[in-house]
Amino acid sequence: MEILAWNCQGLNKPLTNNHLKYLSSTEHPDIIFFSETKAKDTAMANYFRKCSFNNWISIPPLGKSGGLWFAWKDGLGVEMVHHSRNMVNAIMRDGVNQTNWLLTALYGPLNKATRLEVWKFIEEIGIEVNLPWVLLGDLNVIFNHSEKCGGNAFRMDDVRDVLDFIDSSGLVDLGFCGHPYTWNNQRHGWANVRERLDRALSNPA
Q1: Helix-strand-coil split of the chain, %, nearest 5
Q2: Structure confidence at residue 98 (pLDDT)
Q3: What is the pLDDT of residues 101-156, one digit of tens each?
């Protein structure tokens, strides 16, 4: 199963649409999770149908910010169990291997108070759900100094709460291939900042 998770920062941009078409044709994802869609449902639905994604759940943006879109192709066993402004939780049913597992697609909030609420909820999921579990998306946090280049120095105190929640939930980082940074502020010279905000985590179940 192939899963594409992307903070697209606005799905209505022509460049974003072209990039999605390219990824759909080359990577053949079965599930797509977009955050920061900043787009209305009607426009997105027509677009995803063209890419053979006939099933979805969407959380609309507030004004010109936010918005989630979780879409999957026909034939997948997907049981939606929870969704909010920041995440989608679904039980994936594997008919071939007769196994179920939990997928949490997350867009991490920037506000610290909201972040604590979201990660506390994630911690409760880890306690209640006795299934193999994958959490992925734009977490909006970095875990150590090697995941940042430029800008203010990394401070462990800024992310200790998130790391504690991840540890208590039994989740481990699955690592990555490719470029070490997934976000770039697009500024030049000394003002440029790059960070690894996107990742996938899993429990050892």
Answers
A1: 30, 30, 40
A2: 66
A3: 999 999 999 888 898 999 999 888 877 878 899 999 999 999 999 999 999 999 99
Residue 199 burial class via C-beta count within 10 angstroms: exposed 0-12, middle 13-18, buried 19 and up: buried
CB 151 within 8 A of CB 187: no
Q: Identify which of 157, 161, 136, 132 has the alpha carbon closest to the alpha carbon of residue 145.
A: 157
Of the candidates 58, 84, 86, 87, the residue with the CA atom closest to the CA atom of residue 72: 58
pTM: 0.91
Pairing of strands 148-149, 133-138: unpaired
CATH class, 106-204 region: alpha beta
| Residue 1 near residue 31 (C-beta atoms within 8 A) | yes
Polymer length of the chain: 205
User: Going by C-beta distance under 8 Å and a sequence separation of 6 or more, which residues neighbour residue 28?
Assistant: 2
Per domain, the residue ranges of the chain are 1-75, 106-204
83-94 confidence digits (pLDDT tens): 999 999 999 987
Residue 68 and residue 35 in contact, taking contact as beta carbons nearer than 8 Å: yes
Q: What pLDDT was estimated at residue 105?
A: 96
Q: How far apart are CA 108 and CA 162, in angstroms?
A: 10
How many C-beta atoms surround the C-beta of residue 6 within 10 A? 22
